[in-house]
Amino acid sequence: MSKKQKSNKIMNMKTSNIYLKNIKQYIGQQVSIKGWVANCRSSGGIYFLQVRDGSGYCQAIVSRDEVSSKVFSACQQINLETSIQLIGLVKEESRAPSGCEIQVNDLKIIGQSADWPLGKKEHGIDFLMNHRHLWFRSPRQVAILKIRNEIIIILREFFKQEGFILTDTPILTGSSCEGVSTLFKVPYFGQTAYLTQSGQLYLEALSAALGKVYNFGPTFRAEKSKTRRHLTEFWMLEAEVAWMDHQGNMALQEKMISYLIGQVLKRRKQELIILERDVKQLEKVITPFPHLTYDQAIGYLQKTGCKIKWGDDLGADEETILSKQYDRPLFIERYPAKLKAFYMKPDPDNPKLTLCNDLLAPEGRGEIIGASQRIDDLATLKKKLKEFKLKEADYQWYLDLRRYGTFPHSGFGLGLERIVTWICGLSHVREAISFPRLINRLQP
Ligand code: 4AD
Ligand code: MG
Q: Which CATH superfamily hosts domain 3-111?
């Protein structure tokens, strides 16, 4: 049989398509792969193709002696990111990261990719961001997106194990939760709606029906500041628990974060290696986490020479100074009421403070969680709405929760992209989401 006849026979054989992540199961067998060429070099009569299919990578070898001359000359048209289908024999190769390589018998180009724009070693960040839709085909970006996916799965598992009910709160809302300055307005049939800043108020209502609830979805903030930590659209996981107090709230956050890190280390080591993440730092994230009160934090910052006074908010620089003292996440509790949202319960020992906490990630990565016990008394809540210049009429349904069987309750919100940024060791939150939305970026 000629080489050409052999090759046609193989293409007609309907060899079953496999995913590269499973390739080791097919050693010694003929398989079909559909994917993209991540790298291509040739030497004499051989092409070495680095093929990826989303699930994994493998080297495919096209030898002049093993394929028809038509297939071999078609290889000249292969560039970075050309899409192909190939058929070949899987061989064990202990030196390859996948443990295998493929000896190609037949190959078809599905889509050309002339002048792939991201072929150079170094590109400026603006260029990469303008090509985000192509950029995330790179191994680093793929690793980040896989870790993000794993984090979501682990968190959902955690809440299931803890007996929480997943509830979905609306994206279009009629009132503010986290302050009016970061609301996105949307015309709504003659009224104004706002894109949600947090599902918390709705979760509070749901917690009276279901006890332990959480939601997980996109959240919007018209953040006017350009920082490494702020997106205008981000994903937040929020939990709310009836009858849980401030202490219980912090214990839950600690349990969740330590479980999350332990599981990511177990399940995504390979991706963390691709990102060159120092996993030793993550391995240190075990309970108990340290705590500072806001008062202690201000005292410490003043001792180190920061020009901060009691009543000032902690900025990114101050958070970094504080968290760098510890090798695990740091709770900062009991902030002054005037720095925080209207719904936080005053500290019974000092009503100028609230029963709240932020959780700061280690390695200077800033706030990953915002949390509090909520006001459960109708009169106090009404007074707070007034102080914050919020219209009582917009919050009637929320006040009802204090009118009909009020109950102590607490909860928190975890910023997914902040967690991804920390776990992956990224320098900017924009790489932690597929299509980041920033103050100056709505495309691609
Ligand atoms: O601290 P925040 O504003 O808290 C709330 O929204 C509460 N209502 C949550 C609750 O108690 N149910 O936001 C919570 C977290 C922050 O700690 C941070 O991780 C993340 O959401 N976050 C942002 N992430 C990216 N970009 C932004 N602009 C963010 N703003 C907050
Ligand atoms: Mg906050």
A: Nucleic acid-binding proteins (2.40.50.140)
